[in-house]
Design goal:
The protein is an alpha/beta fold and 193 residues long. It has one domain: Rossmann fold (3-Layer(aba) Sandwich). The protein contains 5 helices and 7 strands, in the order αβαβαββαβαββ. A 7-stranded mixed β-sheet has the order 3-2-1-4-5-7-6, sandwiched between helices. It starts with 17 loop residues before the first helix and ends in a 6-residue tail after the last strand.
């Protein structure tokens, strides 16, 4: 059995309309950001650029080669605000509880089992501050274009059912390209997990 995750090495970053996506995500300068299943770091390097040197991006993946590639980008690019963590996003992560302002899960949720989805969203709920954001980027549930098989793609309603159990409420969303959509949720300030 391979240690390589199902979609390792693939990224939706070049498929999306970055202007649309980052307008929805609305990265706040000097904040703390969590990029779950960061792969080789296409999203988190862009986020690090936008967040500024006083912000912190936690880039987490269980794919060693992706983390190694990202660490090389960090080193050669002189990036000082990304902390890489080799970990499974369905387990308790070594990040302080209620310390994250915003989280991105870019085209990863569909690859997780139902239990894995619950575990990952539960962990996000533990880490994101009350009033913090969860951004989920996924492939549209259509038969054309790149992406996973239709049978594992998730539509907005499926994601809504999953995340609302953990105290998240939709605040924004929309298409971010021909094949992808992005939904943004806020964690209730009243939730305690």
């Amino acid at each position: 059995m391979s240690d390589r995750p199902v979609a390792a090495g693939k990224s939706s970053f070049d498929l999306i309309d970055k202007q649309e996506a980052f307008a929805i995500i609305a990265i706040q300068p000097h904040s703390s950001f969590l990029d779950l299943a960061c792969g080789a770091g296409n999203y988190c390097t862009e986020i690090a650029n936008r967040i500024g040197e006083k912000g912190t991006v936690y880039a987490i993946d269980l794919w060693q080669e992706g983390i190694d590639t990202l660490n090389q980008k960090i080193s050669t690019g002189g990036i000082k605000n990304i902390k890489t963590i080799l970990a499974d996003i369905t387990t308790e992560l070594p990040v302080e509880e209620n310390s994250i302002d915003s989280c991105l899960m870019a085209t990863i949720l569909h690859d997780l089992s139902k239990n894995g989805q619950q575990a990952a969203i539960g962990e996000v709920a533990r880490l994101v501050k009350p009033g913090g954001m969860l951004n989920i980027l996924e492939f549209k549930k259509i038969e054309k274009g790149p992406g996973p098989p239709l049978r594992i793609r998730m539509d907005e309603q499926e994601i809504e059912v999953l995340v609302t159990k953990y105290g998240f409420t939709k605040v924004a969303g929309g298409d971010v390209g021909d094949f992808n959509y992005l939904v943004k949720y806020v964690k209730s300030p009243d939730i305690s997990l």
